[in-house]
Amino acid sequence: MKYAVVILDGAAGWPLDDLMGATTLGAAQTPILDLLASRGAIGIARTVPEGMEPSSSAACTSILGFDPKANYVGRGAIEAAAQGIKLAEDEVAMRLNTLTLEDGKMRSYAGGHIATPDSRAIVARLGELLNDDVFTFYPGSAYRHILVVKGHPEVLDLGYTPPHDISDKSIDGHLPRGKGDELLLRLMDRAHEALKDDPTNARLLAEEELPITDIWPFWPGAAPAGLRGFSEVRDGLRGAMTSGVDLLHGLAELFGFEWLDLPGVTDGLDNNFAGQADGALARLDDDSADLVVIHVEAPDEMGHAGDIEKKCYAIECIDRDIMTRLFSYGRKHALDNGGEGFRLLAMPDHYTPIATKTHEGEPVPFLLWGDGIEPNGATAYNEEAAGATGLALDPAGYEVMDLLLG
Asked: Which of 116, 211, 220, 369 could cross-link with 201 by S-S, CB 3.0 to 4.6 Å?
């Protein structure tokens, strides 16, 4: 049996007046997802346990079949693993956003979705100016970078607000807070001053693009220990993964999935959707993997932007360019066609409603289709239809992997 998992990051949402009461997932034109829902089973799963922040780190850990509480790793450490950063016992890795503040408000948590070469140049220069015995800057991709803090474990216990939670809002009360917060606050002030005369910023301003005015450290994590790999806990099943974000790359490293570095895979609408599906299915075809994970970030980014039309379009791209290919593959390799068998799981990791532009932790709709999956009465794939079937994995959403593998 071969398996595929599609994570439609942030695709779930709330009903919108602009869509006559539909959600973006319900309003998007998704004929393949709807067909699979009618031929398979849909339900809801709580991917973010009560009390945990509704971030993709917990939610995607659940989808991969691991209890995110028992296997907790701070997100900064997960993303550091994607870059091959080995943390010492006295080091903490933090996500570091390059962003734009204006008049004390969060103008853009992503610095206008700055291009990776520009953002890397800015962070590299900050490293030249600010790296010392305590801080080390590691350039990443787009607006997402890593800050390693040495010798100050107190940063693990500070209060943080993810910048995407306060889009267009005042940052008052949202800076790092708690005992020892002055360490990070001083660094943020120093970076703010350094960014004023940054040459890349000067060019962005000349081109009428948003400049990077500030850095924002959050999501700390220490070096993980005691994690068991996917293959170990799943009787030798070999997994492979593709995504446009470092978080999923880090999860792949920590849980022993092969990382698929495919051309054109990004976190936005310019993503090579078809290339992700083709590259993943190639690993099933050549028998180098038993299960592939295709993670698509675009719906989440459009949810954070509050863009209804583009979020619907991102979901439609997944349906047209990814789900179509998986459906064809599944039919070709079905047991009743003499194949080895195929099963598919598709689901968001969390909600990213247009109304809030941030993550919400309620149970998400999941879809199972393939050999041995019996239909449970749905005719479409959306939040309401999934809730109506009565199939619910709550609180143990990580058991969705058990349903897929059977």
From this structure: 211
Question: In degrees rounded to 5, what are phi and psi of residue 265?
Answer: -85, 120
Reference 46, options 363, 351, 398; nearest CA is 363
Neighbour tally for 389: CB within 10 Å: 17
What is the pLDDT, as a whole number, of residue 95?
97
Cα gap 52→362, rounded to integer Å: 11
Question: What does the alpha-carbon distance between residue 345 and residue 46 come to, in Å, rounded to a whole number?
Answer: 15
Rg (CA), the chain: 21
Residue in 55, 51, 80 with CA at minimum distance from that of residue 221: 80
Q: What's phi and psi for 278, nearest 5 deg?
A: -65, -40
Q: Which contiguous run of DSSP H or E holds residue 200? A: helix 199-206
pTM equals 0.92
Under 8 Å CB-to-CB from 121, ≥6 apart: which residues?
Answer: 200
Q: What is the mean pLDDT of residues 279-306?
A: 97
Q: Which residues contact 27 (CB under 8 A, 6 or more apart)?
A: 16, 19, 312
> Do residues 211 and 205 make contact, with C-beta atoms less than 8 angstroms apart?
yes
Q: Which domains does the chain have, with CATH numbers?
A: 2-73+227-405 (3.40.720.10), 81-222 (no CATH)
| Alpha carbons 40 and 215: distance in angstroms, whole number | 46
pLDDT at 139: 97
- Name the β-bridge partners of 97: 144, 216
C-beta of residue 314 within 8 angstroms of C-beta of residue 302: yes
Q: What per-residue confidence (pLDDT) applies to 253?
A: 96
Separation CA 342–CA 308 (nearest Å) = 33
Which helix (H) or strand (E) segment is 219 a member of? strand 214-222
In this structure, the dihedral spanned by the alpha carbons of residues 282, 287, 292 and 296, taken in order and rounded to 10 degrees, is -10
Q: What is the DSSP string of 308-360?
A: HHHHHHHHHHIIIIIIHHHHHHHHHT-GGGTS--EEEEEE-SSB--TTTSS-B
pLDDT single digits (tens) 166-220: 999 999 999 999 999 999 999 999 999 999 999 999 999 999 999 999 999 999 9
Question: Which pLDDT score is estimated for 173?
Answer: 97
Tokens found for residue 355: 């109304």
> Which of 174, 175, 165, 218 is CA-nearest to residue 360?
165
Tokens of 106: 């969060």
Exposure pattern of 28-65 as b/e (b: 16+ CB <10 Å)?
A: bebebbbbbbbebbbbbbbbbbeebebbbbbbbbbbbb
